[in-house]
Amino acid sequence: MKDKHTQPGSRRSAFLFAILPALLFTLLVEILDVVLLSLLQVLQRSGSDAVFAFLKGHAQSLQALVSAISCAVSCIVLLPSAKEEMGRFLAARRTPRMESAWETEEDGVPGGRRTISLLLPAVSLFLSLGLNLVLSLTGLAGLSFSAGEMTRNTLSDPAYPVLSLLVYGLLTPAAEEIAFRGLCFLRLRGVFAKKEEAKGTLFRNLLASSGTVPASLLSAALFALYHGNLPQGIYAFLMGSLFALSVEITGNVRTSILLHSASNIFLLLLSLTGLYNSLCTPVWCACFLLPGLAFLALLLGFLDRGNKRTGNH
Measured between alpha carbons, how far is 77 from 74 in angstroms, rounded to an integer? Predict the structure, then answer.
């Protein structure tokens, strides 16, 4: 008799249960954005001239506050489930068998955990800037962090740079990672997990048996759809896949939150200081994108090179 968890109906239910947090988070954020922005428009139309001038002069700051409220409320709704899911993930990761397997992988990396903790941020920062430069150079519009837009907002609304760093650099990355990696990705791992051993290195066995690869790609695709436009979607898909992989490698969702936050702050600071426009050339793009890809290949190569055994992890 087949295990009930392998039945098609059960698998479909588990799949829907896994993607539901991402869909719910996206829906809640969109609804709250519309409601709050509509309230601001009503206030702007019905208020005094002073209120109208204030709202118009601080439009971008208010947009940042709306984003902060929408993400915070949506995250709070999902937080209890996220805590449970992350607790189960950590408990499974800390079993003697899994701890031993990942310690073996870390032993295959020169410098061990310290090297991993340096390579992951390097990959994230270099790729985040390199990918944004590619999107800018190819003429795609609607990037999250536009240097020209940031400069204009700085001149017209001095409060916006500080708010943008707090909201887009700290709050929204934490909320998005909890929804898309802390819930969606971790649940999808269970949907795509396999009991049988895959041939190859221990690292490949760990990824295959846990369902990490399809889970990371699908959760990243949902993360891309959440952003609602092509350039941000491309960027979100690629970086979302990296953030999911970082969770698997380190065994902690806090890693993806830190990487996401650091990448956003890095891009925002470059925009605020006007350096982004100066870097927007093919040469500088290559100077960031190629090392980012090289660091990623180096990290994966370290993890994949050791202990070419086919089982018992």
Answer: 5
Does residue 310 form part of some domain?
Answer: no
**Residue 251 in tokens:** 């065994």
Report the alpha-carbon distance of residue 208 to residue 205 in Å, rounded.
5
What distance separates the 2 farthest-apart alpha carbons in the chain?
74
Q: Decide if 311 is inside a domain.
A: no
Determine contact, residues 311/205, Cβ cutoff 8 Å: yes
Q: Which residues, other chains included, contact 224 with Cβ-Cβ below 8 Å and sequence gap of 6+?
A: 232, 233, 234, 236, 237, 240
Tell me, yes or no, whether 313 lies in a domain.
no
CB 143 within 8 A of CB 232: yes
| Tens digit of each residue's pLDDT (9 = 90 or more) over 41-91 | 888 788 777 776 777 777 888 889 999 999 999 999 999 999 999 999 999
Number of domains in the chain: 1
pLDDT at 307: 59
Q: Helix or strand or coil: residue 108?
A: coil
Euclidean distance between CA atoms 105 and 210, whole angstroms: 15
Residue 273 belongs to a domain: yes
Structure token pair of residue 36: 């709050």
What's at 175, amino acid-wise? Answer: A
pLDDT tens per residue across span 217-267: 999 999 999 998 888 999 999 999 999 999 999 999 999 999 999 999 999
CB 296 within 8 A of CB 157: no
Rounded to whole angstroms, how far apart are CA atoms 76 and 74? Answer: 6
Structural domain of 187: 4-305
Angle at 285 between CA 268 and CA 113, to 5 degrees: 70
Q: What is the pTM of this model?
A: 0.90
